[in-house]
Amino acid sequence: MTELFTDDYALARDAADPLSSLRGEFHLPRHGDMKQAYFCGNSLGLQPRGARAVVDEVMDKWAREAVEGHFREPAPWMPYHALVREGLARVVGAEPSEVVAMNSLTANLHLMMVSFYRPTRERPAILMEAGAFPSDRYALESQVRFHGFDPATDLIELEPDEADGTFSMAAIERAIATHGPRLALVLWPGVQYRTGQAFDLAAIARFGHAAGAVVGFDLAHGVGNLPLRLHDDGADFAVWCHYKYMNSGPGAVGGCFVHARHARADVPRFAGWWGHDQDSRFRMGPAFVPTPGAEGWQLSNPPILGLAPLRASLQLFERAGGMQALRERSVRLTGYLEALIAQRLDDTLQVVTPREPSRRGAQLSLRVAGGRARGRALFEYLERNGIVGDWREPDVIRISPAPLYNSHADILRFVRGVEAWRTGNA
Ligand SMILES: *Cc1c(COP(=O)(O)O)cnc(C)c1O
Q1: Which helix (DSSP H) or strand (DSSP E) does residue 376 occupy?
Q2: Among 234, 314, 356, 391, which one has the highest count of C-beta atoms within 10 angstroms of its own C-beta?
Q3: Residues 226 and 297 in one domain
Q4: Is there a domain that residue 266 lies in?
């Protein structure tokens, strides 16, 4: 097994995989004379080399055409969001009419809750995971209050039942069944941001619907990471961002899925002109007639400059052959990281993320033995050496090999970095 830990092995694995060439399509941040070993694509994905040209194209069009840019080919701004529709639908496993790129994740979560969190006295509650990303918790708690209910009783936060802070499907099923008659909504992550645990979304949708609840997913860490089948899994809605595994830049325009069965004009919503039926939008009439599908939830004409990099990013997902091919590479990379940690670092790093590849995505969350001070020291040592993960209090380093640009050689560098630090800090 020691042969795993050699440059020859890592370089041979990278050379054998045709997807390794996609790394060349990204700007890798520098560390002195070297490139960083960048494992933070779960927080901010790297810039595709093609992104600048797409943004420049918008800037040039604006300079040359001004208002005419809304209508003139190529890539007129009026239907600009439609340029990413098909590619996005493929990434999340949806029909094109079920997805839209708009706003940002938390804003979309609120808009979806306006339509799909309709609490009643008998059924006021939301089930979510304890330890959720704060923005999700703030959004849900404020929605519960907005409707005049009490988060203390009506925002149910399921505690993890497994040792490392992860959830068994049995516990999720039990919680949904137990609270079922009071549940208006189940809101669950595709991949939990702290532990990296991935969930069986079809099963969660089934449990929730069997209990009479609406089921929504936050896919911030799922999109571009795992193959998704939102339509077939039956989610009512989903929201996500595009700046993590989707590599579309800081604050990139977010994404939203509304299942085709809700593509009806009578679904209540907060409305804006860009969601109005496209054929009659510019008659500027007083009555709102939603465009069918997810696009009927748009409010404003989208920030074209914020949307442009997503076009470059989606091209790379296409070139990779889609999410299934990327996922196979991802399983190999993350499996390599896990194997090397088990072989060489198990006295220093404890893997918090589930061991089964089916229960995780790209990310491994690594608890540093010895507590916070030791963990911070290791994290800062790695940063000084151009090995970039991120830190989650109190003692976890998240390392996420992104299959579009990370390599086996990057992973070897991480493991060697931890070993070098351990030698100096025994
Ligand atoms: C990254 C992330 C967010 C960020 O929300 P924005 O509205 O895009 O700022 C929210 N929720 C989860 C679970 C995340 O991982």
Answers
A1: helix 372-384
A2: 314
A3: yes
A4: yes
Q: Are 214 and 241 in contact (CB under 8 A)?
A: no
Does 198 map to a domain?
yes
Q: Where are the alpha helices (DSSP H) in 187-322?
A: 201-210, 230-233, 304-319
Res 204: pLDDT: 98
Distance of CA 286 to the CA centre of its chain: 37
> Longest C-alpha distance within the chain, in Å?
73
Domain limits for position 122: 55-318
Residues 175 and 233 in one domain: yes
Residue 2: what pLDDT? 60
Look at residues 318, 334, 366 and tell me which one is the last residue of a structural domain.
318
- Among residues 200, 211, 163, 182, which one has the least CA distance to residue 121? 182
Closest C-alpha among 218, 217, 219 to residue 235? 217
Q: Report how far residue 210's alpha carbon sits from residue 234's, in angstroms, rounded to the nearest whole number.
A: 12
Tell me the CA–centroid distance for residue 88 and ligand 1, in Å: 18
The residue out of 318, 351, 369 marking a domain boundary is: 318
Structural domains of the chain, count? 2
Tokens of 198: 């991935």
Cβ atoms within 10 A of the Cβ of 218, count? 29
**Is the beta carbon of 220 within 6 A of some atom in ligand 1?**
yes
Question: Could you tell me if 130 and 165 lie in one domain?
Answer: yes
Tell me the three state secondary structure of residue 214: strand
pTM confidence score: 0.96
Residues of the chain with pLDDT under 50: none
The side-by-side arrangement of strands in the sheet containing 125-129 is 99-101, 255-258, 237-240, 214-218, 183-189, 125-129, 155-158
Question: How far does the chain reach from its first CA to its final CA, in angstroms?
Answer: 25
Cα gap 392→295, rounded to integer Å: 36
Taken in order 316, 320, 322, 325, the sign of the CA dihedral is negative
If one residue of 108, 109, 128, 133 were mutated to test the ligand 1 pocket, choosing by the most ligand atoms within 8 A of its CB, it would be 133
Q: Judge if the beta carbon of residue 223 lies within 6 A of ligand 1.
A: no
Question: What are the beta bridge partners of residue 26?
Answer: 48
Same domain, 95 and 233: yes
Report the DSSP beta bridge partners of residue 92. none
CATH classification at residue 355: 3.90.1150.10
Q: Which atom of ligand 1 is nearest to the CA of 244?
A: 1
